[in-house]
Amino acid sequence: MKAIYFILTLILAAGCTSNNEYAINGTIEGETSEEWIYLVKFMEEDPSVDSTRIINGQFSFKGIAEFPEVYGIHYHPSRLVGICPIFLEPSKLEVTIDNENWEMGSTISGGPINNQYAELMNTRMNNYLSEIIEINRKLSTATDEEKEVLRSRVNLLSEQDFSFTKNFIKSNPESPISIFLLSYYFFEFPSEELEALLNSFSKEIKNTSIYKSIFEAHEIQVELSNRTPAYEYADSLKPIDVNFKEHSVVETLAKLNPNKNLYVDIWGTWCKPCREELPHSKRLRKRLSDEVTFIYVCVKSKEEEWIELVVEEELKGQHFLINNELVDKLLAELNIQVQGIPHYLIIDKKGKLVNSNAPKPSSEEIEKILKSL
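Above: the chain's sequence. Below: its structure in token form.
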């Protein structure tokens, strides 16, 4: 009797397992010298990672998906951007990787969620994104007058794309697609609207790594809504009394440092390229400490991690942790498209923003530019 019960248990377990199984069969377009490809859970603090060998341009993954969360496929497990996103749903999934454009050029089919996401992205691409990409290509050779017209068109298309995406998210609070899309756009929502949206998601969505990450980021913004932590670091941290509400961000920084040339580093504790530049920034500051004041404006970061990193790295200079509202205010002042961070600014002794897209600390030309001030 016990043997029969044991066999029945195995059969039931196998039946339950098969209902949640996924199988990924992948093809890489073009030649590759890489031997391994990785499957990494998206926006998880200590991400789950699976890996497999690439054999003659082919690869495969198999596993169990309790809930269809988003993973990223790429050669490098630590890659955060330029990945091929995939929903691990219980289906046989066919993946074709575009080596030139992992995120937008790769295709996934075989499961209802991945198929719906592909259809949604095709709609966005046809109606908004393709034209935005094409305009951004033209901007590099356009005249100042043409740039103004092109940027106005990009802003309109971006607003339309956001409205379309927001409507999908609000209408589908039980869809894994919605929380994935929100991970790109949550900083565009006012705090109260985002909070209401987060509360509307299903219990399953609230258990995903993406939801938890967005919720944590939202809590940080709520905490920073009425204050701006600011310190000057020399041998120790000394609080700075600052108010960004009366003037522009650039003007406020200039008024805090009258008759000083400023090199402003916009960064985040979570941003790997930002942190890779910090040692170069320290060396640059040592060579220019008498001529330039170094200012670090941190965004979308936890206050404790921010303070800990400043002290650990001995980043001498002025430090500000600003909320999303101030980020938007600064971007409006710059009047340029900031593609990401790190991003650098130069403000001269007169308080004028002389370079809204300055070279990074590791570049060869930045020291010469700063000395010329």
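The first strand starts at residue 21 and ends at 29.
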